[in-house]
Specification:
The complex is a heterodimer of chains A (136) and B (245).
Chain A (H helix, E strand, L loop, with lengths): L17 E3 L3 E9 L3 E3 L2 E8 L2 E4 L4 E8 L1 E4 L2 E3 L2 E9 L4 E3 L2 E8 L4 E3 L2 E2 L2 H6 L1 H11 L1
Parallel strand pairs in A: 1-3, 2-4, 3-5, 4-6, 5-7, 6-8, 6-9, 7-9, 8-10, 9-11, 10-12, 11-13
Chain B lengths: L1 E5 L1 H5 L4 H13 L5 E4 L6 H10 L4 E6 L1 H12 L4 E6 L5 H5 L8 H7 L1 E10 L2 E3 L2 E4 L5 E4 L3 E5 L3 E7 L12 E11 L6 E11 L1 E14 L2 E21 L6
Parallel strand pairs in B: 1-2, 1-3, 3-4, 4-14
Antiparallel strand pairs in B: 5-6, 5-14, 7-10, 7-13, 8-9, 8-13, 10-11, 11-12, 13-14
Helix pairs in contact in B: 3-4
The chains are: A mainly beta (136), B alpha+beta (245).
Chain lengths: 136, 245
């Protein structure tokens, strides 16, 4: 179907890795036990017990939950990370963040509250949502 | 007890006569010779194997190619029997993935008896071992009953892999791989590249308003609805050291 001038991005799935690449849209409650790489579009919610990597081309309209996360693309929704969250210079986040360790690169767009409270972190994004409702 | 199933094309083609003789001698030397059953035009392979298994056969060895293996997979997976393969002739991709060399050398692999349990995929009640493919994928895919996946690129292919070079057929999952052609940049300077999305899953459904084609191990199925699942570790197969998984 495709000619040889085009490049193929080959990936190894041996560690139960999920890849949502460009050209694909996911809607609904996406849950995974393994690493997740997102370069495409996601709407709903994303949850992984491992690492999450959001690429520059990604557009996420969802609440995100992960053990570790590196974000370089667009996220509209609350982010809950158990350990380390890294926002790269190309990232654009609209939503509240809960993380134990956070790194924000120069140039990153961030609109929302950041909480690094471990007790808040353990109760997850539900707490964050609760705070949001109080504000409204 | 071993049972050897000779495919029709091997018996008809004199090219294989000498090789078969060598194989039979080698199997006798190794002490794993057994009953020989021959496939023929009006003989049902599945019935033959079922009868042999009921008579106490514990290892069914197929002499033939991928097509021959597909004829017996259903019966062997439903029993406690182990599947062995001696690849002969063309189209032996399955044997290659299982690390079994062609012809006489396969006898040594059989004798070593390294048994692996493999998952088998199932689509609309039909079993498949390697993969399903859907060229021009524009239907909606519902995965694990929790999320939906659609291709937003103009050109996309879907492959569902159980036994393939990057998939482990022992993990209780299959991989749904969507290859989408994505154009980056504008007009003349735009470059198209293929992007692979990979979803490790245990169940999924494909729905479409119009009938769509799905190729199951190379054979075409047409429907508006495909339900795909996996039966974990149901097929016992003798594999070689060079297997791809």
């Amino acid at each position: 179907m495709f000619k040889d001038k085009k490049q193929t991005v080959m990936s190894n799935t041996s560690n139960n890795q999920t890849i949502i690449a460009q050209g694909v849209r996911v809607e609904g409650d996406f849950r995974s036990q393994g690493d997740v790489v997102i370069d495409g579009e996601v709407a709903g919610s994303v949850e992984t017990q491992s690492s999450l990597r959001v690429g520059e081309t990604a557009k996420i309209h969802a609440d995100v939950k992960a053990a570790n996360a590196v974000i370089a693309g667009e996220v509209q929704g609350n982010i809950f990370v158990q350990e380390t969250l890294e926002l790269l210079s190309t990232s654009n986040v609209k939503g509240d963040i809960v993380a134990s360790v956070i790194s924000v690169a120069a140039g990153a767009q961030l609109n929302g509250r950041i909480s690094m409270d471990q007790t808040t972190a353990s109760s997850g994004s539900k707490t964050t949502k609760g705070n949001e409702e109080e504000e409204v | 007890m071993y049972c050897y199933l000779y495919d029709e094309f091997i018996q008809e083609n004199k090219r294989f006569e000498r090789e078969l003789l060598k194989i039979e001698n080698r199997l006798t030397d190794l002490g794993i010779a057994g009953k020989v059953s021959r496939l023929a035009l009006f003989r049902n392979a599945q019935e033959m194997i079922r009868d042999e298994i009921s008579r106490g056969v514990s290892t069914v060895v197929v002499l033939g190619n991928d097509e021959t293996i597909r004829k017996v997979i259903d019966v062997v997976a439903d029993s406690d029997a182990v599947l062995g393969i001696i690849p002969i002739g063309p189209n032996n991709e399955l044997a290659h993935m299982m690390g079994i060399p062609e012809g006489l050398e396969a006898c040594e692999v059989l004798s070593a008896r390294r048994v692996e349990k493999l998952d088998i995929g199932i689509v609309n009640g039909r079993r498949f071992l390697t993969k399903l493919s859907m060229p021009h994928f524009h239907a909606e895919m519902t995965c694990e009953d929790t999320f939906r996946v659609t291709a937003i690129a103009r050109q996309a292919n879907l492959e569902i892999r159980n036994l393939a070079s990057l998939s482990d057929p022992r993990d209780g999952r299959f991989e749904a791989v969507i290859t989408a052609a994505v154009k980056n940049g504008w007009g003349f300077f735009g470059r198209t590249s293929l992007k692979e999305s990979i979803f490790p899953l245990t169940s999924m459904a494909i729905r479409s308003d119009k009938p769509i084609s799905l190729f199951v191990d190379g054979e075409e199925m047409i429907s508006t609805r495909f339900d795909i699942g996996i039966e974990p570790l149901v097929l016992k197969v003798i594999t070689g050291k060079e297997r791809v998984f």
